């Protein structure tokens, strides 16, 4: 089956007219993976008319949505596909309340499914940034009145971001993640997860980066109010504005998932024709995520 390409909503609607069309697309992606029966571990099956796979030995039936992030979706696979299409191709902010009205589901249902999509948007960590990389920390939730510099207030959500730059200084890739604090113990995580040891990293003169320079090529310069890190600070401003203007509140537990969504679109801005298929593939490959993992009291 040909993958869907493009961002045209009418073309998308024509391609996926029914739940069966969507299940066929999922089945096509799953057919490229090795089959193994969950009941008897046999590795041969036949595909049914509803695109489910049935084990040739024990007869166990695995639906097209089974073992994917579409597992037991209660409002129809087609609606789920449309939500994925909007979240992957939009240039606007999408709140759960907006999506709930748009697709006729409850706010809670929309919020939980969108969180699953954000989970699928998480980076694989298999392609670390190299070349010129700029790194800095920031807080989500605004500035503390009367306080300048890094805030250690418990009310603010702390994060760190890294951008890989092109030869002309534009952003090629971006990753962001929450951190506990701005100490030398918290800062290395983004290096380990997303930055190659061969990268030429530039940061400001914060002392927390000094121990990391033993393992990475790090140059520390004055920030000059962000002027020496224009592209980096532009992206920080954009992600903070996106969160502030779209969501009334974000839990620290799910903060990384929102960063995933923002960075997923940024990192695929040069390959948007296949961005929907990329997301659906990640939804198929992603582990089943339950409500208890998304909501923390």
Overview of the molecule:
- By secondary structure, the chain is α/β, with parallel strands linked by helices.
- It has 10 helices and 8 strands.
- The chain has helices at residues 9-15, 19-30, 77-89, 96-103, 107-120, 188-194, 230-246, 255-267, 275-285, 291-294; strands spanning 45-47, 53-55, 61-62, 132-140, 157-165, 171-178, 200-203, 217-220.
- Strands 6-5-4-7-8 form a 5-stranded mixed sheet. Strands 1-2-3 form a 3-stranded antiparallel sheet, with no helix packed on it.
- A hairpin with a 5-residue loop joins strand 5 (157-165) and strand 6 (171-178).
- Helix 3 crosses helix 9 (275-285) and helix 5 crosses helix 8.
- The longest helix is centred in the last third of the chain and has 17 residues, at 230-246.
- It is globular and about 65 Å long.
- The chain starts with 8 loop residues before the first helix and ends with a helix.
- The mean pLDDT is 91.
